[in-house]
Amino acid sequence: MIDSLRRVAGLLLLVVSCGIQPALAADDGVLVLGRISDDPKAHYEQLKPLLDYVVPRMADVGIHEGRILMARDSQQMASYLRRGRVDWVTETAGTGTLLRQRAGAEPLLLTERNGTSHYHSVFFARRDSGIRNLDDLRGRCIAFQRPSSTSAYFVPAGELLERDIELEILLSPTDVIDSDALGYLFARSELNISTWVHKGLVDAGVMSNLDWDNPRRMPAAFRDDFVVIGRTQDYPRAVEMVRRGLDPRIRARLHEVLIEAASDPVAREAMLQFFGTTRFLPLDSASEHALDRIESGVARVRMEVE
């Protein structure tokens, strides 16, 4: 009964944090963890256990409470970061670089999920399509996942622009491109992407190598009919970001607590609930360069496509 009351109280706090009252920030002794979400209740349950683990271990830098603040999109989260209402955000690499562009957010750590810290995007087409490489896509049609996807939009779209392949959004799969541009649609899920390519609704699709190897998203019967026509370089799967201007002592302690969590059995369950996190890793030079590449690609996508 007590646990139920605590959960209800936490959810009420979540509702308050989502727009009625301003959330306090770390400068006031409250560490605010942010998340862009279309399902605040589910994400709250994933975020809260790790926040509850972190907060008591930051008392020596003045943190005595943790709160969660959801945003409906990257624009709203950027506003929260600029105004100091959010201290720490967990995100994909693509959205993380958007927040760096829009709000000066800074990468703190890489996030390894289910044992994987880096991945890449895979372009594919039907084997009988005659498409064998990315240059063959000119005048064709490709399915991305959604506008917020790193592996199935930001990174592959940036890769195509780097090859001087112009992108034009289509109204529907029956819309026709009358130039050398590559038409694109958003399929909303990886399974839809593979299905659309297999049925010939689009000429090509793209998804992460993890989804390519997942039979729930890429059925084996479909994959046998496909050919890989391109791959991107590896990039971080997820990143932990902090707001610009966060107290250096708080930033350093958060970094330390998260790094050490992987070796603490007490943190294990909370980390797994945190989107399947297995450990947090320091940013190495290769990952920093990959984030810089993504940021450049995101900037081009926003300027030339959106």
What percent of residues adopt helix (DSSP H or I)?
A: 40-55%
Mean pLDDT: 92
Q: What's the total number of strands?
A: 14
* Order of strands in the sheet with most strands: 2-1-3-13-4-14
Number of helices: 11
Structural class: alpha/beta
Report the sheet with the most strands, covering strand number, pairing sense and barrel closure: 6 strands, mixed
What would your notes on this structure say?
The protein is of the alpha/beta class and 306 residues long. The chain folds into 2 domains: 2-116 and 236-304, Periplasmic binding protein-like II (D-Maltodextrin-Binding Protein, domain 2, 3-Layer(aba) Sandwich), CATH 3.40.190.10; 121-232, Periplasmic binding protein-like II (D-Maltodextrin-Binding Protein, domain 2). The protein is built from 11 helices and 14 strands. A 6-stranded mixed sheet has the order 2-1-3-13-4-14, sandwiched between helices. Strands 8-9-7-10-6-11 form a 6-stranded mixed sheet, sandwiched between helices. The protein has a two-stranded antiparallel sheet with strand order 5-12. β1 (30-36), α2 and β2 form a beta-alpha-beta unit. α3 packs across α4 (93-103) and α5 (150-162) crosses α11.
